[in-house]
């Protein structure tokens, strides 16, 4: 046991939410309920978009993937996420995406929350998709095509059910085992699930088309002739330079909505278009500064690459739900000497 003088003070301790804790929190709240709650927090923060520091994420690219830092602040709280994207990982038994994140008090610079974000990013990505679709998808949409049935597919499907009210999902993946996995996982969750043998089959009768594939390359998951009028496309697979999913012709026929143009023009589907191609920042739809869906025949496209404010919102949601749960470790993260000027003295007193 440490001597009392060496015990960390309350100021030294930061709540740390482990993967185990996060899963327990999700089950305590409910998967769909938690995604709906995160979506509300994201919408609240999008409505105060102009308060936030905004910058494209800092990315370190390699032949195998990318490692990124995603920072933001609303002037009172600072947040960042570390996240990677390595498509080859699944062949080695590893996750394509892993992440952790932090919130800190702007006034002192002291961290107030450290959390896993591999699980939380899956929830916030799906929550963002469904929050946007709630405002852009055609009225009465009840069917989604889920093209790409990897780690995000079940979350996307259940978020669209919880937030947009869809009742059916049509699944397709080039890997039939991924589709079978997704279908099994969605059984018993109140969705009608159809497995499909082609993307054309999957989008038949669907009003919402979600593409979420992992290959780090220019790809055409949806060709121009596959997409008719009156649908909402939720394109979330493209998230780095050189990685796309949609034919350029689809983009030119669509009204395109994005998170943060300086980042999306580098990483999103619109990297295929001229740098000045017109897009709408989605926060402006929420504040009434720009129109969303204006007709039944309109194709709306959410070119989503993920933005730091969404992670900030998700972390803020988790922090607000932690009190009295015990679902965190008090992590001895910060040195807190009795005299702030005497860090060396604190070190010497700890000498064994």
TrEMBL record:
Protein name (database record): Ornithine cyclodeaminase
Lineage: Bacteria, Pseudomonadati, Pseudomonadota, Alphaproteobacteria, Rhodobacterales
NCBIfam families in the cross-refs: PRK07589.1 (NF005762)
Pfam family, one: OCD_Mu_crystall
């Amino acid at each position: 046991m440490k001597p009392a003088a060496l015990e960390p003070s309350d100021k030294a301790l930061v709540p740390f939410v482990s993967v185990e804790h996060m899963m327990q929190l999700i089950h305590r709240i409910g998967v769909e309920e938690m995604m709906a709650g995160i979506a509300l927090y994201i919408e609240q923060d999008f409505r105060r978009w102009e308060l936030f520091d905004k910058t494209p994420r800092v990315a370190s690219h390699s032949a195998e993937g990318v490692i990124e830092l995603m920072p933001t602040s609303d002037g009172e709280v600072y947040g960042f996420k570390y996240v990677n994207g390595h498509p080859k990982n699944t062949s080695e038994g590893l996750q394509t995406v892993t992440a952790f994140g932090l919130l800190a008090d702007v006034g002192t610079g002291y961290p107030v929350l450290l959390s896993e974000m591999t699980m939380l990013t899956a929830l916030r990505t799906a929550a963002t998709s469904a929050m946007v679709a709630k405002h852009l998808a055609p009225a009465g949409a009840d069917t989604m095509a889920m093209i790409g049935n990897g780690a995000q597919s079940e979350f996307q499907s259940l978020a669209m059910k919880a937030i947009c009210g869809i009742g059916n999902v049509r699944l397709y993946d080039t890997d039939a085992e991924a589709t079978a996995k997704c279908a099994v996982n969605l059984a018993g969750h109140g969705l009608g699930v159809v497995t499909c043998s082609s993307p054309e089959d999957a989008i038949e009768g669907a009003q919402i088309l979600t593409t979420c594939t992992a290959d780090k390359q220019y790809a055409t998951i949806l060709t121009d002739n596959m997409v008719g009028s009156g649908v909402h496309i939720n394109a979330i697979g493209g998230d780095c330079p050189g990685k796309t999913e949609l034919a350029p012709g689809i983009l030119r026929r669509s009204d395109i909505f994005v998170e943060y143009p300086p980042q999306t023009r580098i990483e999103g589907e619109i990297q295929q278009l001229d740098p000045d191609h017109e897009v709408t920042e989605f926060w402006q739809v929420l504040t009434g500064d720009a129109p969303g869906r204006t007709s039944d025949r309109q194709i709306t496209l959410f070119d989503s690459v993920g933005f730091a404010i969404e992670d900030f919102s998700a972390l803020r949601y988790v922090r607000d739900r932690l009190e009295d749960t015990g679902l965190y470790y008090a992590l001895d993260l910060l040195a807190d000497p009795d005299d702030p000027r005497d860090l060396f003295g604190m070190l010497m007193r700890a000498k064994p």
